[in-house]
UniProtKB/TrEMBL annotation, chains A, B:
NCBIfam families hit by this protein: rrf2_super
InterPro entries given in the database record: TR_Rrf2-type_CS, Tscrpt_reg_Rrf2, WH-like_DNA-bd_sf, WH_DNA-bd_sf
Coiled-coil annotated residue ranges, if any: none
Highest taxon, organism lineage: Bacteria
Species the sequence originates in: Kribbella flavida (strain DSM 17836 / JCM 10339 / NBRC 14399)
An example Gene Ontology molecular-function term: DNA-binding transcription factor activity
Gene Ontology terms: cellular component: cytosol
Full protein name: Transcriptional regulator, BadM/Rrf2 family
Length: 158, 158
């Protein structure tokens, strides 16, 4: 999985504490000492997926495009890592003896079905966790996080 | 995920119908028109994991090393694709403001925890399905599979 998934999730949590404020990729990258250009690529992907919105100009940058309880971990994984499942059925049964050339073995092959079922529970789990859940957990365990994040960005020279 | 996972699972199902018979990589590859050398690499990985056993010599080849109800889909995924989880926490919190250099953020980071939890349900699902389950499903839906597989290998010129 692309490491941008980790970056994207942490950045969304940070942005949740900066409502109404657009932050440029450079500042968001500085927070974790990440490479700006590469983080920017992930932020663009999140923007295309409707998770972030982006504005240009001297005061421009990225902010959350929708409430954190409508951004799931799966949304971020799919936006950055793409929609493909880990197991890709290449229908090797089609090359096997007695295969039916018209059959869609991605649907009927029992190995393909079992692998898809596992992937489904994984995605269901990721779809059930939102950035709002993560933010709530963080704030419960580390109550100073919102304030210290805001202070850090405020003190950052642009 | 390595496509060898698909090949390995189908090959284990085929081998379940050939008890006591060692089949060389060349024959196993011919069944699905797979490249022999690359399938052989996967079969070696399954052998190292104790899923297959291999014998050399003119009558040598691969066979299942243990009963199909003791070979899970997770065993095959880990043997061929390695033990790493899809999401790799690189502890970006460590580079963030106020980080504790002694902390293991792979354990304490709430994003890392949520991603690991999803991975856990995925692996639990794969660990709950065995090759015996798949074989039983195949035999229920395609009762002629064991016989036709045995006939195909018997007719194959060595």
């Amino acid at each position: 999985m692309n490491e941008g998934v980790e970056w994207g999730m942490h950045t969304c949590v940070n942005l949740s504490w900066m409502p109404g404020e657009a932050l440029p990729a450079k500042k968001l990258a500085a927070f974790y000492e990440l490479p700006t250009a590469y983080l920017n690529k992930q932020l663009q992907a999140l923007t295309r997926a409707g998770i972030l919105s982006s504005t240009s100009g001297p005061k421009g940058g990225f902010q959350l495009a929708r409430p954190t309880d409508r951004i799931t971990l799966l949304d971020i994984v799919v936006a950055i890592d793409g929609p493909d499942e880990a197991f890709r059925c290449t229908e090797i049964l089609k090359a096997g003896p007695g295969a039916d050339p018209r059959e869609d073995y991605r649907t009927t092959c029992l190995i393909s079905q079992a692998m898809r079922q596992a992937e489904l529970v994984y995605r269901r789990e990721l779809a059930a966790r939102t950035i709002a859940d993560i933010v709530a957990d963080v704030e419960r365990q580390f109550p100073r996080s919102p304030e210290s994040t805001r202070a850090w960005f405020a003190n950052l020279k642009s």
